[in-house]
Design a protein that fits this description.
Blueprint (H helix, E strand, L loop, with lengths): L6 H7 L34 H18 L3 H8 L4 H9 L9 H8 L1 H4 L7 E11 L2 H23 L8 H9 L3 H5 L4 E13 L4 E11 L4 E4 L13 H23 L9 E5 L14 H8 L8 E7 L2 E8 L7 E4 L14 H12 L1
Helix pairs in contact: 1-10
């Protein structure tokens, strides 16, 4: 299946192509100086933060229940992101591909191509300030998109900007350039109670924040199911970076004519002895070589993929007691990897392929 660069892939993985980029998750200079928090209570006994977060979450859940994917997209991504998707759309070689397709791709972690099961917001359990890892993730992803939006607006808007020059501009940006675009005015990790259509309750979580003094945004990929916020999140973030880098490399190889098979699932690993079910016409060594342009990691990793898409990724760090990270995260609803070692996750991935 031949496709051009997917707009959302370009939005979320452009940072992988930065020159001279290093991992600065633990460098305090890359995090914000502290998201502003408020503790004033209203007449209902809620803090202003809780009230603001609840309003945003209720609005998002209503749009989700209505299957209004454009609304949930605009609530999750910086203003101007849909115009940015139109830049990729006008260069698409697939005449049937629409802006709605791009918007759907951007939110596959939420909708998974299915009609959403309606959920009901019950209450906020807790509202906590963002930790540095979460601030970093916001600055990295949304700062990247904001850089592209700004360039687009400064060069004639979506109808006039040249995609090739936009991509060239992004490869010249440093991480610091991106972070300068994103000041977290206020931000919270929200743990909440939700109810499904059958009346069953579960915990969900979201990150609600304001950037550069603007309106509220929400990160809700983990709306259902709580995700840990501790030290192990660094490895999940590395696995997510791997996932994005893989998609970039696969797109590059596809455009050069190296992807011939889009039906078989297979695994490629940093350790070639762990490659599994690789099609005869897929050059795993060439893929690993291409990956060096987009992903630098000293530990082991593997990716399960199909055609030009990454399906799952895992990374291993022997120096970290919590030494495995996955994307999607191990406690995501469709991936029962919680508590498993790297080798156990690898073996399970191979078993799932068959």
């Amino acid at each position: 299946m031949k496709k051009t660069i997917a707009g959302i892939a370009a939005l979320t993985i452009a940072l992988s192509a930065f020159t001279g980029c290093t991992d600065k998750k633990n460098d305090k200079s890359t995090a914000s100086k502290g998201a502003v928090t408020t503790a004033q209570e209203n007449k209902e006994g809620k803090t202003s933060a809780e009230s603001s977060c609840e309003d945003v979450i209720r609005e998002f859940i209503q749009a989700y229940n209505d299957n209004d994917r454009e609304k949930t997209f605009t609530m999750m991504y910086p203003d101007g992101s849909i115009d940015l998707l139109n830049v990729w759309l006008k260069t698409s070689e697939d005449d049937d591909y629409t802006i709605e397709d791009y918007i759907n791709e951007a939110q596959y972690m939420i909708y998974d191509d299915n009609e959403p099961e309606k959920i009901n917001f019950k209450r906020i359990i807790s509202t906590e300030p963002l930790i540095p890892d979460e601030e970093y993730d916001i600055k990295r992803e949304y700062g990247t998109i904001q850089c592209m939006v700004d360039y687009m607006n400064e060069h004639g808007g979506p109808d006039k900007v040249e995609l090739e020059k936009l991509e060239e501009f992004m490869t010249e940006q440093s991480e610091e350039d991106v972070f300068e675009k994103t000041e977290i005015t206020e931000g919270y990790y929200v743990l909440m109670e939700l109810e499904n259509e059958n009346g069953d309750t579960d915990k969900g979580n979201a990150i609600v924040y304001r950037l550069n003094g603007g309106g509220w945004k929400i990160s809700a990929n983990d709306l259902i199911g709580t995700r840990s916020r501790g030290r192990d999140k660094r490895l999940d973030t590395s696995a997510e970076s791997l996932y994005r880098a893989v998609n970039t490399a696969l797109i590059e190889l596809d455009e050069e004519g190296y992807i011939k098979n889009d039906s078989d699932e297979f695994i490629v690993s940093s350790d070639s002895s762990k490659d599994f079910n690789v099609p005869a016409d897929f050059d795993a060594d060439l893929f690993r070589s291409c990956m060096k342009n987009y992903f630098e990691y000293e530990g082991d990793w593997f990716v399960k993929m199909q055609g030009i898409y990454a399906l799952e990724t895992a990374v291993f760090d022997s120096e970290n007691p919590q030494n495995v990270g996955t994307y999607p995260p191990s406690d995501y609803v469709d991936f029962a990897y919680e508590g498993m070692s790297y080798d156990e996750i690898y073996n399970k991935a191979c078993e799932d392929i068959g």
